[in-house]
TrEMBL record:
Its cofactor is Co(2+); Zn(2+); Mn(2+); Fe(2+). SUPFAM superfamilies: Creatinase/aminopeptidase (SSF55920). InterPro entries: Creatinase/aminopeptidase-like, Pept_M24, Pept_M24_MAP, Pept_M24A_MAP1. One of its GO terms (biological process) is proteolysis. This is Methionine aminopeptidase. Its EC number is 3.4.11.18. Coiled coil: none annotated. Binds 2 divalent metal cations per subunit. Has a high-affinity and a low affinity metal-binding site. The true nature of the physiological cofactor is under debate. The enzyme is active with cobalt, zinc, manganese or divalent iron ions. Most likely, methionine aminopeptidases function as mononuclear Fe(2+)-metalloproteases under physiological conditions, and the catalytically relevant metal-binding site has been assigned to the histidine-containing high-affinity site. Belongs to the peptidase M24A family. Methionine aminopeptidase type 1 subfamily. It catalyses: Release of N-terminal amino acids, preferentially methionine, from peptides and arylamides. Monomer.
Length: 264
């Protein structure tokens, strides 16, 4: 069932979203050459505890994955892009790190992801990160009352096509609110003018992710970590967005975040 949120409920999600943004800003700040992924995991655990939030990941046991998930943040490196399990790995110069984070505060969830490059960035890595950021902004712009769900998917797919990146449609965006995953799958590729008509009160997690040279994925033995099937590098950007009468409202926007500048 799709639940439409009231303006007051959206504001409560916005409270959660601001904390999610704060955590991802902190992860981006401290992720550096020589930092262990488990140090990031434990740092985030401390932030959650101090805020009185509840992790959406801890004990998460969906149909995919080999649960329960026993971490509070997904950390995926290089060819890993989704559901990366934090483990004993020390970040190296040039690593591409995706951090995906979702919590609940007072019964309302928010979900966001960002990809950062540790140390010296390679041009091709910067390019794919920028592509996901541009695709996310295009998706947000399409999330307006009167548009269709397919308009969001088509906007993401168009950016991927423009950059020359293939698109996997197995994992994408989703509804969000009282739980991390609510009804509605938002594909990262689709046809404009198709699907559910967008109305004020709809809240979605939009999350374009691309691999450089494949749309196929593989799973690690841990049952969670998803990688590009050919080992090519990846990137992932995500925001929780509310559709309002005045247009899209990004609930997880980071204070220092600036709109991406296209340099294809």
């Amino acid at each position: 069932m799709i639940e439409m949120k009231t303006p007051a409920e959206i504001e409560r999600m916005h409270v959660t979203g601001r904390f999610v943004a704060e955590v991802l800003s902190e992860v981006g700040r401290i992720a550096d050459v020589g930092v262990n992924l488990m140090d990031l995991e434990h740092h985030v655990r401390g932030m959650i505890k101090r805020r009185g939030a509840e992790s959406c990941y801890w004990d998460y046991s969906p149909s995919f994955g080999e649960g329960p998930f026993r971490n509070v943040i997904c950390l995926s490196v290089n060819d890993a892009v989704l559901h990366g399990l934090p483990h004993d790995y020390v970040l190296r110069d040039g690593d591409v790190l995706t951090a995906d984070f979702a919590v609940m505060i007072d019964g309302w969830a928010a979900d966001s992801a960002r990809t950062v490059i540790v140390g010296t960035p390679a041009e091709e890595d910067q390019r794919i990160v920028r592509a996901t950021e541009e695709a996310l902004e295009a998706a947000i712009e399409a999330a307006r009352p009167g548009n269709r769900l397919g308009d969001i998917s088509a906007a993401i797919g168009a950016v991927a096509e423009d950059y020359g990146y293939p698109v996997n449609t197995e994992f994408g965006g989703h509804g969000i609110g009282r739980t991390m995953h609510e009804d509605l799958h938002v594909s990262n590729k689709g046809r404009p003018g198709r699907g559910l008509k967008l109305r004020p009160g709809l809240t979605l997690a939009l999350e374009p992710w691309f691999a450089r040279t494949t749309d196929r994925i593989s799973y690690d033995e841990d049952g969670w970590t998803i990688r590009s099937a050919d080992g090519s590098r990846t990137a992932h950007s995500e925001h929780t967005v509310a559709i309002t009468e005045d247009g899209p409202l990004v609930l997880t926007r980071r204070e220092s975040e600036e709109p991406p500048v296209s340099r294809k």
